[in-house]
Design brief:
The radius of gyration is 17 Å and the shape is globular. About 50% of the residues are buried. It has about 250 residues and is of the alpha/beta class. The protein has one domain: NAD(P)-binding Rossmann-like Domain (Rossmann fold), CATH 3.40.50.720. Helix 1 packs across helix 9. The chain has a 7-stranded parallel sheet with strand order 3-2-1-4-5-6-7, sandwiched between helices. It is built from 9 helices and 7 strands, in the order βαβαβαβαβαβααααβ. Bound molecules: NADP nicotinamide-adenine-dinucleotide phosphate (NAP).
């Protein structure tokens, strides 16, 4: 079934990890996907894989810490497809520096990439979605947006802010636009590898009744649900996709 036939979906942070897996899920469901990230080689590969499977996609190279570059994601989407139906604000910059040591430069980079860029893109897509009478914005939060035990200060604050942004966008952009967040737990991606993989997160994973880490595709299928009319009465929610870990 092509549940996203002819829909245009921007997915930030889709050159890797759960964003890439979501790009594949959305493309399989008929969406025209805008793949985003900084790494052109990986972006091109994702687009080629989508096209090889009969799907449609373009890529836009943009650093989410630079808001002018963030705007080019919207501009190039409109240039290529003329509209947008789904915005998945998924790009995330992990910061491991605790509060006594973090510099304002690092703090600002995390906030810009993980929160402000999501607002900027939401502002860009809103007039189009409002005019069409429908649209879905999905934000990637984290278990670190639920509990401080899962992330140092900037990341924890950014992901908590993502939950607030989700609630505010749902309130202010409804009834045409729905906005929800996904809060992943330990998902097997490059980001998880960068903090020591499943071994480093063993206590967290052991607290899950499912006793395992999740896959990017298990995020992609939830994003698909939130992108389609299957979730038409859900807005402003943060949906934990974390295997039920303690938080
Ligand atoms: N993996 C987990 O266990 C976990 C848990 C909770 C939440 N999350 C969240 O899930 C989201 C996706 O992470 P992931 O685990 O899939 O990690 P990942 O495989 O490392 O992917 C991160 C994505 O974000 C992009 N990105 C990072 N910094 C960027 C920047 N400055 N400008 C543009 N793009 C940038 C990367 O693209 P380029 O490298 O091409 O720039 C990549 O496509 C993030 O928001 C993360 O915080 C992950």
């Amino acid at each position: 079934m092509q549940r996203l036939k002819d829909k245009v979906a921007i997915i930030t942070g889709s050159t890797s990890g759960m964003g890439r897996d979501t790009a594949y899920v959305f493309a399989e469901e008929g969406a025209k996907v805008v793949v985003c990230g900084r790494n052109e080689e990986r972006a091109r590969e994702v687009v080629e894989n989508i096209k090889a499977n009969g799907g449609e996609a373009i890529y836009v190279i943009a650093d989410m810490t630079d808001l002018d570059q963030v705007c080019t994601i919207f501009d190039k989407t409109i240039e290529a497809y003329g509209t947008v139906d789904i915005l998945f604000n998924n790009a995330g910059l992990l910061s491991l520096t605790p509060s006594p040591d973090i510099t304002m430069e690092e703090w600002d980079r995390v906030m810009t990439c993980d929160v402000t860029a999501a607002l900027v893109l939401a502002q860009k897509v809103y007039p189009i979605m409002k005019e069409k009478g429908s649209g879905s914005i999905i934000n990637t939060s984290s278990v670190a947006g639920i509990s401080a035990r899962y992330g140092p200060v900037a990341y924890c604050t950014a992901k908590h802010a993502m939950n607030g942004l989700t609630a505010a966008l749902a309130r202010e952009m409804g009834p045409e636009v729905r906005c929800n967040a996904i809060a992943p737990g330990a998902i097997i991606t490059a980001m998880l590898d960068s903090v020591g993989g499943t071994e480093a997160l063993a206590p967290m994973i052991a607290s899950s009744p499912l006793n395992r880490a999740g896959s990017g595709r298990e995020i992609g299928t939830v994003a698909l649900f939130l992108a389609t009319e299957d979730s038409s009465y859900i807005t402003g929610q943060v949906i934990r996709v974390d295997g039920g870990v303690d938080a």
